[in-house]
Structures are given as C-alpha cells and as structure tokens.
UniProtKB/TrEMBL annotation:
GO terms for cellular component: DNA polymerase III complex. GO terms for molecular function: 3'-5' exonuclease activity; DNA binding; DNA-directed DNA polymerase activity. Its EC number is 2.7.7.7. This is DNA polymerase III subunit delta'. It catalyses: DNA(n) + a 2'-deoxyribonucleoside 5'-triphosphate = DNA(n+1) + diphosphate. Keywords: DNA replication, DNA-directed DNA polymerase, Nucleotidyltransferase, Transferase. The lineage of its organism: Bacteria, Bacillati, Actinomycetota, Actinomycetes, Candidatus Nanopelagicales. It comes from Candidatus Nanopelagicus limnae. Gene3D superfamilies: P-loop containing nucleotide triphosphate hydrolases.
Length: 381
C-alpha cells in the first residue's frame, strides 16, 4: 500500500507520479521526468488535491511514499516541516499570502530532500497574486517543488500553465466509487450504488451522502422544489427556501469552528478578561474578516451543490423523454420524474438544464446568490 492508494480510477496519473518520485530520489538534478512545477486539473471530486498531496508525500518520504512513515503521515495531515499546504477557505488567495508563501518556499528543506508547496485552489489566485507566483516559478529554487491544483487549464494564467507539467485527472466511474464505499466505509451495496450515481463522480460527496442521513434528506428536499413552483410567487418562495437552507448549513458548519478559532487566537495573544497584548485586537478583526469571507464561500458552495442536484433531476427527465430508463440517477423519484417528463418537452427540459449550468457559472463569478436563484426558479417554472 502506498500514498497513491487513495487515488481512485487514476492509474495513468499514478504511474506518472510514481516514476517522477523515483527520478527525484535517484537524481540530484530535476529532469524531464521530474520537473519543478506541476499543475493538477480535474473536475470536482476527481482527487486533484489528493494527488498533489500524495505526490508531496512521495517526494519527502525516503521510501517514495510508503504511507506509513512519519514523513508520509505528517504530509497527509498537513504538518510536515518541508511541505507547505495552501488551501483557501475564502473567496480568493491574495498577494500578501503569496508573498509570505514565496518567502517560506525559499528556505532550504530541513529534513527532506525537497521543499514542496501545494496550492489546492490555484484558480482562486487574484491577478496580482498569480503574477507574483509567476515570477518565482520562472526561476524556481533547486530544492523547491510547486504543485498547483485547479479545475481546468483555463482557470490558471496562460503564463503559469505554460511553465507547468500538466496532469489531468478524470471523473471516477460509478463502479469505482461504489466499490470504494463498500470496501473502505462498509456501506451497503444498494446505498453505495445510489450515492455513487447521485454524487456525479465526486468521491467526497458520495461518502458524505452515504454516511450522513441529514445530507441525504437535504438532497431529497432540494429535488422536491421544482414540484412546488406553480407561479412567480412560488418561484420566489422556492428560491428563498434554497438560499436560507444554504445559509443555515453554512452557519451550522462555521459557528463552532469560528468560536474555537477566536478563542485560540485570543489565548495566543494572552487575553485576560477583555484585555489582550498590543496588536491582539487587530488580529482578531482580521480573523473575523477571513471568517466572514469563508462563510460567504460556504454558502456559494452549498448552493452550487444544490444546483448540481437539480441538474441531475432534469437530466433524468430528459432521459425519460428520450424513452431511456437504464441510467437514471434519481430512481427513487421515478414517479415525480415521470410527471415532469409528461408535462413538458425535451427542448424545454434541455433549456432548464442550461439555465442551471449558467446559474452555476454566474455564482462562481460572485453574483448575488438570491437574485440568481430567483431568476433560475422563474425559468424552471
């Protein structure tokens, strides 16, 4: 077993990374097999971040990624001294963060042969941050490896991607995800197959649906929304319900985490009662600002997930209108799907799917969520 065992249905990528890690350990100089800058792309849930972290572990592990030693385990946990793991919980990665990162990346490795930097959301770099990063990857240090992750090549500046070795991960098959859930998480076969289809190839989403009854119920509630839309008023009501549900989920997930972060920060600044060391209040305000940005992103992420669920519903409607029932995702909602299929035609169904996908794109561009969802529900009506 190796660190690459967590990559599902990505055999070609795994072979390339294993060869590169071996070349890195066998040579003092980087070569065509092992380069200094890599770009991992793939759809959500394909495992692009997992691939980058596994590769980082293989580079710092003396055995090339055994998954059992302290180097591998600390890399996966994000605590290795020579591995920088950058994952933003906000809407963007700003230039100040990148400048600090570049400074740390320039340090010589302390215990491993390489210093490895993993940027999980390279697509969220601001233009100024991306340009700052470009300067350092144009002339990388001899012992620094940069691993960037993004959904697609077009999400990264052309000048950056032209200097990277590109690896594209594919969406794992339904069968591969089903087997993973059965073997790793002891999920029963029927549930595993259903959530593998419902997740759209997103391994993390499939696991959450399989192990969290609330997540399955929330998904079921979302898929019922189209049936309640009868007129403009009900369309607006459905939009409000969807946005409120996303905000409630984000608040539930963030509330305790926010409190713990504030408490630990105040403790670090020597808080006694309402007093802190000089600079403490400013640090708390900055953290609260980051938490607000994170909360905004979480709401958008929940809405995006809901839109994907709605897209699977209309996909099934379109299949039924094409006289096909073999690959329905939401087979538990067959009666609802039949009702929707007979009340419209394929052209209109396709238009609704396109409207959902357009709403997802606009949501990613930071448009106002409620206005977007209201407009979409009017189209779905």
């Amino acid at each position: 077993m190796s660190v690459f065992s967590s990559l599902i249905d990505q055999s070609q990528v795994v072979e390339i990374l294993k060869d590169a890690a071996q070349a890195a350990h066998n040579s003092n100089d980087l070569s065509q097999v092992m380069t200094s800058t890599w770009l991992f792309t793939g759809p959500p849930g394909s495992g692009r971040s997992n691939a980058a972290i596994a590769f980082a572990a293989a580079l710092v592990c003396k055995e090339g990624g055994c998954s059992k030693c302290n180097d591998c385990l600390s890399t996966i946990l994000g605590t290795h001294a020579d591995v920088e793991l950058i994952k933003t919980q906000g809407l963007s990665i700003k230039i100040d963060e990148v400048r600090e990162l570049i400074t740390r990346a320039s340090w010589a490795p302390s215990v491993a042969n390489y210093r490895v930097v993993v940027i999980e959301d390279a697509d969220r770099l601001t233009d100024s941050a991306a340009n700052a990063l470009l300067k350092v990857i144009e002339e990388p240090g001899l012992r620094t490896i940069w691993l960037l992750c993004a959904p697609t090549l077009t999400d990264v500046l052309p000048t950056i991607r032209s200097r990277c070795r590109h690896l594209s991960l594919r969406t794992p098959s339904t069968k591969a995800i089903t087997n993973l859930l059965i073997e790793r998480d002891a999920v029963d076969a029927k549930t595993a197959e259903f959530v593998a289809r419902a997740s759209g190839g997103h391994i993390g989403r499939a696991r959450r649906l399989a192990t969290d009854a609330n997540a399955r119920q929330n998904r079921a509630n979302i898929l019922k929304l189209p049936l309640m839309i009868k007129d403009i008023a009900s369309a607006f009501k459905a939009a409000q319900l969807l946005v409120d549900a996303a905000k409630a989920d984000a608040l539930t997930d963030a509330e305790k985490k926010d409190e713990d972060e504030i408490s630990k920060l105040k403790e670090a600044w020597g808080a006694t009662g309402s007093k802190m060391a000089s600079g403490g209040s400013k640090a708390v305000k900055e953290l609260e600002k980051e938490q607000k940005s994170r909360s905004t992103r979480m709401v958008r992420d929940y809405l995006d997930r809901a839109l994907l669920d709605l897209a699977t519903l209309y996909r099934d409607v379109l299949l039924l209108q094409s006289n096909s029932t073999d690959s329905l995702i939401n087979q538990d909602l067959l009666e609802q799907i039949k009702l929707m299929a007979t009340s419209t035609n394929p052209a209109k169904t396709l238009g609704k799917i396109e409207a959902i996908l357009k709403t997802r794109r606009n949501l990613a561009q930071n448009a106002a969520p409620l206005l977007l969802i209201e407009a979409l529900m009017c189209v779905l009506r």
